[in-house]
TrEMBL record:
InterPro entries: A-amylase_C, Alpha_amylase, Carb-bd-like_fold, CBM20, GH, GH13_cat_dom, Glyco_hydro_b, Ig-like_fold. Residues 1-15 have a biased composition (Polar residues). Belongs to the glycosyl hydrolase 13 family. This is Alpha-amylase.
Length: 723
């Protein structure tokens, strides 16, 4: 390594190794809006950054409730609009259905204007009732309501402490055909009513024209169409700016979260730059959809969750839960293993969004699935790690295989089903007991069909016992738990046949867990401030710029403000915006880009730990922009891939292990030419080089460092010849 490598490596920080002054400097003013920063501390106003103690309820807007007229049963298999809308949701908020169910966030269909065309596929009429066929991301889908209706929805939700999460699908517009402009609406995209372009005759290159993906490579998935949907070219400056403006409009309407559709199908570097603009505007919780069909490990999935700056839907755990509780093709041992494996593969496992089913899979309930299995799976979902999302109708045991049968109109609003009561009880428990929100998981007892596990966060503990065998009871013998000596009632109050009380004294007495039974015994006693240990359970958003805001969630921070630690150094007092025993808001300090551990020192001088991880924050080196790096004539040996590294943290700070890549070489450019879209600081002089990497063996380019001055805004392409 050259001398300069040593100096420039100081720019990037590894966890815990940051050599920072004890008191951090103030960041340079960067034009970020000043916000009051009181959100985290007032329980009545939902915190849009931390969802760990929430339960999300996923709604297909068209299929849930009608405001203009009531929804009847949807005709079987219809892909036509059924009439659900935002006034309908307001009605349900007002009548208290969601509050009584205990859910604290509603994830609704993409709200933006969608095409009117009815598309005939194999004789079946298809419409945009699902919201994924956008036309104008700056207008509302009039079938769901107007902007005023949307504002009323947000207000009605916030009045009840409920968050609004919108689905958002910037990957594509709508179905289009390269050869037929009259097909559907030709994928046309509008900017608040002004036509930007359509799919055919796209001289400007707003869209990709590389055919459909075969789902075989990440590159195909990104730069070819998802099915027949007109795939947007995010590196086009018009598209890049459009999506920054469009999401800002929805943020300004007060949304609390974003579920990003099809993140596997958009350049990760573009998404990071887009997220940075979201977090710089008004940070909210963002989670992406990267579909996985099985619980098997997918390193790309984990890499995206750890590095993209957003969380993900937890397909891995969810597919395993389905195997275990629904289809019985896997055992409790597999479930336990998936929990263990995901906690080690995902840095923020407690922020992954878990679920039993969704609009993209057969509903959990089916003829071969007894109600009790749904209930047991719900108990697992709501007590295990991750932010649970309940798909609408699960509490009413709705069934239905592939879409649209899994998206039928809401069948009833009964509040007496066992599933409804289990959700209500456990959602309340998630809010009360930080062990469920932030805790680690350990197995206490296990068999093929039964699982007893403990969630623990400092002195908060929950023990969960589930027996999926509906015929035989399971003997629980000799287990040791962290529940302090005492007598614990089953939080489910025997709803699922659990033993009514459990005595604990370090050990739990031997007991029989009845057939199909589940129980939860827990302790959320709060230690007196002088004894409380500060524990960090969540830091969010995962990244941002100096001057932006971050939320720290956990317990034991104490009633009086202490200090917020960032990479081990204390933030100046005026960077601490609000402080309560469980939630802190702080301003990101003006430190060099890189990863920092965020922590807390209490007024009594105790420093926090982060028992389940997730305490990291990535400081960006500046405002971000997407740059396409192209390197031509880079011949490689078998197994080698091309990467780029450079002097900013976004380029890995010259560390080849953190270099950005692998580059692609098939669709937009073909081998021996390679390309990759990367988020880098805007308006900055960056130095970089390409390298060829195969595992740990690295071949750098020769010659001096390359330099590039990135523009202040827009997007850019840098084209080089390998040397
Ligand atoms: C980055 C350096 O600045 C560059 O000059 C060198 O070739 C590579 N690292 C490999 O050490
Ligand atoms: C995933 C969505 O969840 C699915 O319903 C949709 O059809 C595709 N992405 C395309 O938007
Ligand atoms: Ca794409």
């Amino acid at each position: 390594m050259s001398d300069r490598n040593l100096t420039s490596s100081a720019v990037s920080r590894q966890p815990g190794t940051a050599a920072l002054p004890a008191r951090l400097p103030r960041p340079a003013p960067n034009g970020l809006p000043n916000s009051p920063g009181s959100k985290g501390s007032d329980p009545a106003i939902p915190d849009p950054l931390n969802y760990c103690s929430d339960v999300i309820y996923q709604i297909c807007t068209d299929r849930f409730a009608g405001g203009r007229f009531p929804l009847g049963a949807s005709p079987a298999g219809t892909k036509l609009y059924c009439g659900g809308d935002w006034p309908g949701l307001v009605g349900k908020l007002e009548d208290g259905y969601f509050s009584r169910l205990g859910v604290t966030a509603l994830w609704i269909s993409q709200p933006v204007d969608n095409i009117d065309a009815v598309v005939d596929y194999e004789g079946v009429k298809h419409t945009s009732y699902h919201g994924y066929w956008a036309r104008d991301f700056k207008r509302t889908n009039a079938r769901f309501g107007s902007f005023d209706d949307f504002r009323r929805l947000v207000a009605a939700a916030h009045d009840r402490g409920i968050k609004i999460v919108i689905d958002f699908a910037p990957n594509h517009t709508s179905p289009a055909m390269e050869t037929d402009p009259s097909f559907a609406e030709n994928g046309r995209l509008y900017d608040d009513g002004r036509l930007l372009g359509g799919y055919t005759g796209d001289a400007e290159g707003l869209f990709h024209h590389n055919g459909g993906t075969d789902f075989l490579t990440t590159e195909n998935d990104i730069y070819r169409n998802l099915y027949d949907m007109a795939d947007l070219n995010h590196l086009h400056p018009v598209i890049d700016r459009y999506f920054k403006e469009a999401i800002r409009l929805w943020l300004d309407l007060g949304i609390d979260g974003i579920r990003v559709d099809a993140v596997k199908h958009m350049p990760a570097g573009w998404q990071k730059n887009w997220l940075a603009s979201i977090y710089g505007c008004r940070p909210v919780f963002v989670f992406g959809e990267w579909f996985l069909g099985s619980p098997d490990a997918d390193p790309e999935h984990a890499k995206f969750a750890n590095k993209s700056g957003m969380s993900l839907l937890d397909f891995r755990l969810s597919q395993q839960v389905r195997r275990v509780f629904r289809d019985r093709t896997a055992t409790m041992y597999d479930l336990d293993e998936t929990i263990l494996a995901t906690v080690s593969d995902y840095e923020r496992a407690n922020s992954l969004v878990t679920f039993l089913d969704s609009h993209d899979m057969a509903r959990f309930k089916a003829d071969h699935v007894p109600d009790r299995s749904v209930e047991l799976a719900l108990v697992f979902l709501l007590t295990s790690r991750g932010v649970p999302a309940v798909y609408y109708g699960t509490e009413q045991y709705m069934s239905g295989e592939k879409d649209p049968h899994n998206r039928e109109t809401m069948r009833s609003f009964s509040e007496t089903t066992v599933a409804f009561r289990a959700i209500r009880t456990l959602a309340a428990l998630r809010r009360r007991n930080p062990a469920l929100a932030y805790g680690t998981t350990s197995r206490l007892s296990i068999g093929r069909d039964a699982y007893v596990f403990e969630r623990r966060f400092g002195s908060s503990v929950a023990v969960v016992a589930i027996n999926r065998d509906l015929e035989r009871s399971f003997p629980v013998r000799g287990i040791v738990s962290s529940l302090p000596t005492g007598l614990y009632p089953d939080a489910l109050e025997g709803l699922l046949g659990g033993r009514p009380t459990m005595s604990a004294d370090g050990r739990l007495p031997d007991f029989e867990l009845g057939p199909g039974a589940a129980a939860v015994w827990h302790d959320a006693r709060v230690a007196p401030p002088e004894e409380a240990e500060p524990l960090v359970g969540h830091v969010g958003p995962p990244m941002g710029r100096a001057g932006g805001e971050l939320a720290i969630g956990g317990s034991g921070f104490g009633p009086r403000p202490g200090a917020v630690l960032f990479g081990g150094a204390e933030l100046p007092d005026d960077h601490v915006l609000s402080w309560s025993d469980s939630a802190i808001r702080a301003r990101v300090p003006g430190v060099p880009g890189g990863r920092y551990e965020a922590g807390v020192r209490t007024a009594a001088g105790r420093e926090s730990r982060s028992p389940a991880g997730g305490g990291f924050f990535e400081v960006l080196s500046g405002e971000q922009m997407a740059v396409r790096f192209v390197v031509r004539r880079a011949w490689t040996e078998w197994g080698e891939n091309v990467f780029v590294a450079g002097d900013v943290s976004e380029l890995g700070g010259w560390n080849p292990e953190r270099a950005i890549g692998p580059f692609a070489n098939q669709v937009l450019f073909a081998y021996p030419d390679w390309y990759c879209d990367v988020s880098v600081p805007a308006g900055a002089e960056i130095r970089f080089k390409f390298l060829k990497r195969n595992g740990s063996s690295v071949r750098w380019e020769s010659g001096p460092d390359r330099r590039f001055r990135t523009p202040r805004s827009g997007t850019a392409t840098v084209t080089c010849d390998w040397r």
